[in-house]
Design goal:
CATH topology of the largest domain: TIM Barrel
Number of helices: 21
Strand content: 15-25%
CATH class of the largest domain: Alpha Beta
Number of domains: 4
Strand order of the largest sheet: 2-3-4-5-6-8-11
Bound molecules: beta-D-glucopyranose
């Protein structure tokens, strides 16, 4: 069922979901049931104790099989952008292995900036190849929650603020990973859009928004991508914890989407025995206090049936049978990181870099530039680890400075100064490090600024590396704001005064406030946390070996207050909370008795997060409310111009078809990401101003023209009708807006659908 879009060979480019690999006619979920008869024969031989042993963790990263019957344990690893370093059996501390250095792939928002289903597939495949080398059965990823808040601590792990883009990439990532014989565990299901109070917050979201925005990526990865396992999130959705949420797990996931695999709670995210057993959880990770002995007791007293236990075991075994265990003497005999996977990481990084602004022709760096001053610690800091769960121990990581120096060679002198102290928080260097800031909002250090300015004065061009780091954007907490940290604006002011030929490269996973920096920097690049070859890819773009082709997967608001949840007063929620994961689960940090744990949970704040902005997430909000962002969703410049020829559009029962000629009118090969939005000029139902419905990445040689074809499946034009409690179509006049970004529409057409 795997089918690549071979863009270079194709004369016609077909995009969107209709013909994608992720739209197999046979439900991949149904394929999981092929072994049910064998599985039932196994279950018939198992004792109740053996069955229940499978419903909770065995170690921090495994759950039990049935050794007596030759059924292997399930081995897990994080996800989502590299196979995580091996930890000790009962914690996350390093096991000290030598062969577990993995490929560090660009993080989620970087992958999403490629807008490439093909690269998402390859990325997943790379993860799958390395998962097998490590003997892993289930990878905890991809992480596909919608980026609702600009400050979200896990924005960098997640893909996009848009459900269609997220869903496509989630689906292809899933397929790619599972093609190698390992299961994904798609996470965090669902509506885990904030880290603040994530362990107790109740996300209150209306059914239409839930379906159209927050569940879409999961739905496609499950239904079309065939995701074999799903991780219920820490939070509650509309009153019930995700790990015991009847509506999410039993009604929607299993009932409507036909999910046949198993669910694994987020680590420490199981909350009760009856709730979890009755409402859709299979495996408690970690611990056995809910899905261990209490299940046995409940069956014995008749509170739970053994048939329910059998059902849970059957769902786990379907995945166990679909994923062949890697024998112990084969696993971990080779270095995890493989050259072909590092090559995939490089290709993703190359296509992810977003040129936000390019005035005055500073980029690509011209042959006349002989002396470059690289300023800013983000040019030298590695980004593979930190951020809690999602770090990777990479085999190596090419930093931006290393990439630039290597590409510059002898002909160009590259000097470097740190420019600012970096806040490395809990994960980084201690206070003894003279380059460590005590707080993320610490002002600029005059001595470091003076040193940077001296280099800038001497240089032909300044490359300023700003942005955040993985202590600032991290799992477990949201950012306090989106301001550039550690006095970076002050540094930029001083640099611009010393040398106006200033290019800024932002190294971050999420958006930052660029109001001060933007007028001072004629060229700005979003460089992401771009994996093991990130510095190589960045240098290729800066020096013009390749044209930048990434497009923003989320909006850069001008001001944080402009963004939907902030404008509506829905965030931040004022109750100070503690992170459930840190406080309640980490036995290595907190020694607690079960009673103490229960008391802590009861004492935790139980805040609500009200999603009253509805479906107006990201650009849907800015468009509808006519709020101008700093950089719009889908924005990204190239070194060439693309001409969009006139669009032909037709509508039929199955959906909408669009075609148009696209020409690269520049002097180098380049990719364009074309985007098709739909607006409904007249409608009874309320819609955002416009919505992305299809996209394609198109590679064009200089001067080349191709016909691009886009298709919008009818299903993607549906809305959730709350009166009917079902998907529905609103027929009528549709305006098709075709462009290079959500704020750069080049062609319009109308159809009746
Ligand atoms: C995170 C998950 C992760 C798990 C195991 C949790 O804290 O939310 O994304 O997979 O830890 O590391």
């Amino acid at each position: 069922m795997k089918k690549f879009l071979s863009l270079s060979a194709a004369s016609l480019v077909v995009a969107a979901s209709l013909f994608s690999a992720c739209s197999s006619p046979v439900s991949p979920q149904d394929r999981l049931t092929v072994n049910d008869a064998r599985i039932d024969a196994v279950i018939a031989q198992m004792t109740l104790e053996e069955k229940v042993e499978m419903l909770h963790s065995k170690t921090n990263m495994s759950s039990a099989g049935v050794p007596r019957l030759g059924i292997a344990d399930m081995h897990y690893a994080d996800g989502p952008f590299g196979i995580r370093e091996e930890g000790v059996p009962n914690g996350f501390q390093s096991a000290g292995w030598q062969l577990d250095s993995a490929t560090y792939f660009p993080t989620g928002s970087a992958l999403a900036a490629t807008w490439s289903e093909d690269l998402a597939y390859q990325y997943g495949k790379g993860m799958g190849i390395e998962a097998r080398l490590r003997g892993k059965d289930v990878i905890l990823g991809p992480a596909v929650n919608i980026q609702r808040l600009p400050v979200g601590g896990r924005t960098y792990e997640y893909l996009s603020e848009d459900p269609i883009l997220s869903a496509a990439l989630a689906c292809f990532y899933t397929e790619g990973l599972q093609s190698q014989g390992t299961a994904v565990c798609i996470k965090h299901f669902a509506v885990n859009n904030q880290e603040t109070n994530r362990g107790s917050v109740d996300a209150q979201v209306d059914e239409r928004t839930l379906r159209e925005i927050y569940l879409k990526p999961f739905e496609r990865a499950v239904r079309e991508g065939g995701a074999m396992s799903v991780m219920p999130a820490y939070n509650k959705v509309n009153g019930a914890y995700c790990s015991e949420n009847e509506h999410l797990l039993n009604e929607i996931l299993r009932g409507e989407w036909g999910f046949k695999g198993y669910t694994v709670s987020d680590w420490g995210g199981t909350h009760s025995t009856m709730g979890a057993m009755l409402h859709g959880l299979n495996v408690q990770m970690t611990g056995s206090n809910y899905l261990g002995q209490p299940v046995i007791d409940s069956v014995k007293t008749g509170a739970l049936t053994e048939e329910l236990v059998n059902e849970k075991v059957r769902q786990i075994l379907r995945v166990r049978f679909a994923v062949e265990a890697v024998p112990d003497d084969v696993a971990n005999t080779k270095m995890t990181s493989q050259p072909e996977c590092r090559d995939i990481a490089l290709r993703v990084a190359e296509k992810s870099i977003v040129l936000l602004k390019n005035e005055g022709g500073l980029l690509p760096l011209s042959a006349g530039v002989k002396k470059i001053a690289v300023i800013g610690q983000n040019a030298v800091l590695k980004t593979q680890s930190g951020g809690m769960g999602a770090g990777v121990k990479a085999l190596y990581e090419v930093t931006p400075l290393e990439g630039i120096r290597k590409r510059a060679g002898e002909a160009v002198e590259v000097s470097y100064a740190p420019g600012y102290k970096n806040f490395r928080g809990r994960w980084g260097a201690g206070a003894a490090d003279p380059l460590a800031a005590a707080a993320s909002d610490e002002p600029a250090d005059p001595a470091l600024v003076a040193e940077a300015v001296a280099l800038a004065r001497e240089a032909d061009l300044v490359l300023f590396f700003g942005g955040t780091n993985k202590s600032i954007e991290t799992e477990g907490s949201d950012r306090a704001g989106i301001d550039l940290p550690v006095g970076q604006n002050e540094v930029v002011k001083a640099l611009a005064a010393a040398n106006p030929r200033l290019v800024t490269v932002l190294i971050s996973g999420g958006p930052t406030d660029l109001r001060e920096l933007e007028p001072l920097s004629p060229a700005i690049v979003q460089g992401w946390w771009n994996g093991t070859e990130g510095g190589t890819a960045l240098a290729e773009v800066l020096f013009g070996d390749i044209a930048p082709s990434g497009k923003l997967p989320f909006t850069f608001p001008a001001r944080l207050e402009d963004s939907p949840a902030f404008a509506m007063g829905n965030f931040p929620n004022k109750i100070a909370g503690q992170d459930l994961f840190m406080m309640l689960y980490r036995d290595d940090l907190q020694k607690m008795s079960p009673e103490e744990r229960r008391a802590q949970i009861a004492a935790m704040p139980q805040p609500e997060s009200v999603y009253s902005e509805g479906s107006l997430v990201g650009y849907r909000w800015y468009d509808t409310k006519e709020v101008k962002p700093m950089y719009a969703f889908g924005h990204g410049l190239s070194y060439v111009d693309f001409d969009y020829g006139s669009m032909k559009a037709s509508a039929g029962k199955k959906g909408i078809k669009v075609s148009f000629p696209l020409t690269n009118s520049g002097r180098m090969a380049a990719d364009e990401v074309v985007q098709l939005y739909v607006r409904r000029p007249e409608s009874r139902v309320e819609w955002p101003y416009k919505e992305l419905k299809a996209f394609a990445r198109v590679s064009l040689q200089p001067g080349e023209t191709r016909t691009v074809r886009l298709e919008i499946p009818a299903d993607d034009l549906r809305y959730w009708n709350v009166d009917k409690n079902a998907w529905d179509l609103e027929h009528g006049r549709l305006e098709l807006l075709l462009g290079a970004a959500s704020d750069d529409i080049r062609q319009k057409a109308e159809v009746r659908f």
